[in-house]
Amino acid sequence: MIDKNSPIPLYYQLEQAIRERIETGTLSAGEMLPPERHFTDSLGISRMTVRHAMQALIEDGLLERKRNKGLFVKVRPFHQSLAKLTSFSEDMRARGLTPSNRILEWKEIKLSSLAAGKLQKEIGTKAIRIKRLRLADNDPIAVETITSPLEMAENLTENKLKESFYAYLEGEMKFTLHRGEQEIEALLADEEMASLLNISPGDAVLRIHRLSYLKDERPFEYVTSTYRADKYTFTSSFYR
């Protein structure tokens, strides 16, 4: 890994060696690196040399330092375009990943004034509320809460939801999904959210509020989703 007779600086040799291991998958995303002392003792180099190499990899977005834990190979986030109405399942499959759910809550409710206003219904209208943990290859990505008028989901079952809510609406209910409106805010995870997403309390999360419409402009869902900020980014294109 290190050739002390080479004119190439030692920190750069170490940096390139670790970079190669990350890029080839020898060091996988989320994997913890050995402590500094491992490199100083095994390679016979100074702590300053190790820190110089690690800092370069942090600045290049390949490593991240977690407080009181150490250095980890940075997980590269998923990128979702804001230009198209897609489901979580569709997004994950497009990336070659297997989506899955863990149902946290499933209940029939009466719409509050806020939800009724969003869904263009009378206050107290019957609806279904589903809270679920969304996973990709069994890795937690987001916590999602769907509120939908009962008429849209009267035949929905947990088994049918294993595919996706959109697949159920389009396939069984024969609805044509059309468009959505989203608001995005940055928050810090509380203890409950951190536990569900397998992150630390105080870590950054992205909260998405989405109101989605059928082709006839009827709202069919109001969704609040909380994503791990280290695993998800949203992109948008603008023109002038």
User: End-to-end span in angstroms?
Assistant: 50 Å
Structural class assignment: alpha+beta
- What is the number of beta strands? 10
Mean of pLDDT: 89
GO molecular function: DNA binding; DNA-binding transcription factor activity
Protein name: GntR family transcriptional regulator
Keywords: DNA-binding, Transcription, Transcription regulation
Domain HTH gntR-type: 8-76
What does this structure look like?
By secondary structure, the protein is α+β, with helices and mostly antiparallel strands. The chain folds into 2 domains: 10-73, Orthogonal Bundle (Arc Repressor Mutant, subunit A), CATH 1.10.10; 78-235, Chorismate lyase-like (Chorismate lyase, 3-Layer(aba) Sandwich). 26% of the residues lie in helices and 35% in strands. It has a 6-stranded antiparallel β-sheet. Strands 1-2 form a two-stranded antiparallel sheet. Strands 3-10 form a two-stranded parallel ribbon. Helix 1 (10-23) packs across helix 3. The radius of gyration is 23 Å and the shape is elongated.
Provide a brief overview of the structure.
By secondary structure, the protein is α+β, with helices and mostly antiparallel strands. The chain is built from seven helices and ten strands. The chain is 26% helix and 35% strand.
